[in-house]
Design brief:
The protein is mainly alpha-helical and 523 residues long. It has two domains: 427 residues, MFS general substrate transporter like domains (Growth Hormone, Chain: A, Up-down Bundle); 50 residues, no CATH class. The chain has a two-stranded antiparallel sheet. It is globular. InterPro entries: MFS_dom (IPR020846), MFS_sugar_transport-like (IPR005828), MFS_Sugar_Transporters (IPR050360), MFS_trans_sf (IPR036259), Sugar/inositol_transpt (IPR003663), Sugar_transporter_CS (IPR005829). It holds the Pfam family Sugar_tr. Its main location: membrane.
């Protein structure tokens, strides 16, 4: 039931579209800097911030997100997935207000930290919420809507910033940052109409409401539907086993749980270490290195975000037909190849510009690619890297991280995964601007090596989770689980359970199955 007896939306795709406005906040904040950091207004007003200062401004979002991710799990377990997202929105409104009114880069950092706190909660709990309401065979396509929302947020905010760049004075970036209120307000309006997660309801003992919600989402309200009965029986069985396993932080590491903790946290760490965010955040810098200036550079960088959306949209159609392992391994190798090409071409065709490239000079950009063909290659493979990322690690890392946890650990576990993402995001955010100044093209070689290491890690340690229920995935990390490279997508036992329940119901000749509510009382 919605807040204040409001009607509740049970269409999963519509629920996902509303919930993933939380992802749009993430996207808005990412590109709230991308189009602005190269403008004359920003450089002059904030006294040409470079190196560590620009790193601190850029990574402030991640710093706040580390804190948000750390507290998201306990908050979500206490008040629910949906309500924790609403709680986070309050900090976004305050943070955005501070950014709009900031008088120096210290206040700008403070506002971005508060926005980051919101993103830390939403980036961890929106995937949890979506994973817990989606059917196993559709879970990837539902959770990937979060990634699409992030990318639409990046694109929209980038071109808002680009458009505002023509406004004279500090109003250019203040107007752009002020538009960040819009997606937050829309999210806060939509949240009361969403159902609570049926798995969270079961976790806190609201069993009848859990079954009713599960039935409304999965079977048009029919609580005796075999799918609803089979899924509820799995939830109850796993929930009872987890209660016997104990409480506290030890449950994240005992009885093989450490494998899942490692998988959830490391997949998010590798998403950052693969280096795509160097392109996402700073393609405007790379475009300047390649000799593109003014509107050409801005539009070239903006097209990247459109490419990002298009190819993630393509993967939305196929995400549940392709194994997670396959996409992770080949995606990391493909990104590594692109990094090596960009770094190699830059290394062989550049000249140092100690004062900085551009007008006014940008102190973060100290090399310029000398050859036209080399510059075109750099831009082409930067685009290609984003294409590979959009098809593979960008959506799959969030999906995989949301899938590997048990019911009792999912909210806090996903918080740990997001915490890992944001710790590395923060570290790389601080590292990248100074790296552009100090090691220039060698930065891309480093990320290329890390991508190869990521591919090896994925192949050796990550079992296939595609097409399996959240409860079945537990078996993949158990003591007797097959080696990760021997696991395959699909092969879900839920289909057999549904067929068995349907047969049992037919055999009882009108007596019907035991109603889920009765099963609840037994549990």
């Amino acid at each position: 039931m919605g807040w204040l007896n409001l009607p509740t939306i049970y269409n999963v795709h519509l629920v996902a579209i509303i919930a993933t406005l939380g992802g749009m906040l993430f996207g808005f904040d990412i590109s709230s800097m991308s189009a602005i950091v190269v403008t004359k207004q920003y450089i002059e007003y904030f006294d040409n911030p470079a190196g560590a200062v620009q790193g601190a401004i850029g990574s402030a979002l991640a710093a706040g997100s580390v804190v948000g991710s750390a507290v998201a799990g306990p908050i979500s377990d206490k008040i629910g997935r949906r309500d924790s997202i609403m709680f986070a929105c309050i900090f976004w409104l305050v943070g955005t207000a501070i950014q709009v009114a900031c008088q120096n880069w210290g206040q700008l950092i403070a506002g971005r930290v508060l926005n980051g706190f919101t993103v830390g909660i939403t980036s961890s709990q929106v995937p949890v919420y979506l994973a817990e309401i989606a059917k196993a065979e559709k879970r990837g396509s539902i959770v990937i809507i979060q990634q699409l929302a992030i990318e639409f947020g990046i694109l929209i905010m980038y071109f808002i910033g680009y458009a505002c760049a023509s406004i004279p004075g500090d109003a250019s970036f203040r107007v752009a940052w002020g538009t960040q209120f819009v997606p937050c307000v829309l999210l806060m309006i939509g949240l009361p109409f969403l159902p609570r997660s049926p798995r969270w309801l079961a976790k806190v003992g609201r069993n009848k409401e859990a079954v009713a919600t599960l039935a409304n989402i999965q079977a048009g309200g029919n609580q005796e539907d075999p799918l609803v009965v089979a899924e509820w029986e799995e939830i109850v069985t796993v929930m009872n086993a987890e209660r016997e396993a104990g409480r506290g932080w030890r449950k994240f590491f005992k009885n093989g749980m450490w494998k899942r903790t490692m998988a959830g946290m490391s997949v998010q760490a590798w998403q950052q270490l693969a280096g795509a965010n160097v392109i996402v955040y700073y393609l405007t810098y790379i475009a300047s290195m390649a000799g593109l200036t003014g509107d050409v550079a801005m539009v070239t960088s903006g097209i990247q975000y459109a490419v990002f959306i298009i190819f993630t949209g393509v993967m939305w159609l196929f995400i549940d037909k392709t194994g997670r392992r396959t996409l992770l391994v080949w995606g990391a190798l493909g990104m590594g190849f692109c990094h090596f090409v960009v770094g190699g071409v830059m290394g062989g065709h550049h000249v140092y510009v100690p004062g900085g490239v551009g007008d006014p000079p940008n102190a973060n950009i100290v090399i310029s690619v000398t050859s036209g063909h080399a510059a075109n290659t750099v831009i082409t493979f930067s685009y290609l890297l984003i294409v590979v990322y959009a098809l593979t690690l960008a959506p799959v890392c969030w999906i995989y991280a949301a899938e590997v946890w048990s019911l009792g650990t999912r909210a806090t576990g996903m918080s740990l995964a997001a915490l890992s993402n944001w710790v590395f995001n923060f570290a790389l955010g601080m590292f990248t601007p100074p790296a552009f100044v100090n090691i220039t093209w060698k930065l891309f070689i480093i990320f290329g090596v890390l991508c190869v290491a990521a591919a090896a890690w994925f192949w050796l340690l990550f079992p296939e989770t595609c097409g399996k229920t959240l409860e079945e995935i537990e078996l993949l990390f158990g003591k007797d689980a097959p080696h990760p490279w021997n696991t395959r997508k699909g092969e879900s036992r839920l289909t057999a359970e549904i067929e068995a329940i349907a047969a049992r119901k037919k055999k009882e000749e009108g007596e019907g199955v035991v109603e889920p509510a009765a099963e609840i009382d037994k549990a």
